[in-house]
């Protein structure tokens, strides 16, 4: 028999959609939710884009600092309730930053496209699963964002692999780790979720 462990309900679904890692959450604690999230994230997107265009994630270029810049700008807003009119834009912008950086690193270093797409696939699977869970009120456990590294930690891992010159090994290890973690956790979570509750939520959504 599968036991169901109750997970805490997120204070804000928009904040949960951000998929912050330990680094970003720690920076958010420093400002105690007083910093509006959207303007810094937009600035981080612009700076990250410029760094990618200049260095294209080369180990000797400025692009390897893109994750640090994005973290410094977007991280402090992680504890904000995201209750502003346009704060719902923050999570998709963070997805754009992360996916663009991962793709740029992979293609700039001549990695097999399949490897880059597999890593991007792990991220897309996780984020789709996260969105669907929150809509069905099947909340992910708090430790998932920690072990999953968050958008900030994953970008940092890619940047460190670029600096060390271990891009292929770094992408392979990160891809395997994320697929194993997100796949296993998602399957076990949905198997343990009470089916009646999910069906009731779906009926309420249709109404």
Please outline the helices and strands.
Elements: H1 13-18, H2 22-31, H3 38-55, H4 66-74, H5 90-108, H6 113-136, H7 142-147, H8 150-164, H9 167-192, H10 195-206
Helix pairs in contact: 3-4, 3-5, 4-8, 5-6, 5-8, 6-9, 8-9
Query: Tally the helices: what do you get?
Result: 10
Q: What's the order of the H and E elements?
A: HHHHHHHHHH
Instruction: Tell me, rounded to a whole number, the average pLDDT.
Output: 85
User: What is the domain tally?
Assistant: 1
Describe the structure.
It is a single chain. By secondary structure, the chain is mainly α. Helix content is 70%, strand content 0%. Helix 3 (38-55) packs parallel to helix 5. Mean pLDDT is 85; it is low at 1-6.
Features:
70% helix; disordered N terminus; 10 helices; 207 residues; mainly alpha; Four Helix Bundle (Hemerythrin (Met), subunit A)
Outline:
With 207 residues, the chain is mainly α. It is 70% helix and 0% strand.
């Amino acid at each position: 028999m599968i036991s169901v462990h109750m997970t805490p309900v997120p204070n804000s679904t928009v904040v949960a959609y951000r998929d912050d890692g330990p680094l970003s959450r720690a920076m958010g604690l420093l400002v105690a939710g007083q910093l509006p999230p959207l303007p810094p994230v937009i600035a981080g997107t612009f700076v990250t884009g410029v760094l990618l265009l200049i260095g294209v994630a080369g180990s000797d270029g400025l692009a390897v600092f893109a994750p640090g810049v994005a973290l410094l700008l977007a991280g402090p807003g992680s504890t904000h309730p995201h209750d502003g009119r346009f704060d719902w834009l923050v999570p998709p912008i963070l997805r754009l930053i992360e996916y663009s950086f991962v793709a740029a690193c992979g293609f700039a270093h001549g990695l097999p496209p399949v490897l880059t797409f597999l890593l991007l696939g792990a991220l897309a699977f996780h984020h789709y699963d996260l969105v669907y869970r929150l809509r069905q009120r099947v909340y992910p456990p708090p430790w998932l964002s920690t072990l999953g590294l968050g958008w900030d930690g994953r970008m940092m891992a890619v940047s460190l692999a670029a600096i060390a010159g271990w891009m292929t090994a770094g992408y392979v290890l990160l891809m395997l780790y994320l697929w194993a973690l997100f796949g296993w956790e998602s399957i076990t979570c949905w198997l343990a979720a009470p089916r009646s509750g999910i069906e009731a939520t779906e009926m309420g959504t249709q109404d």
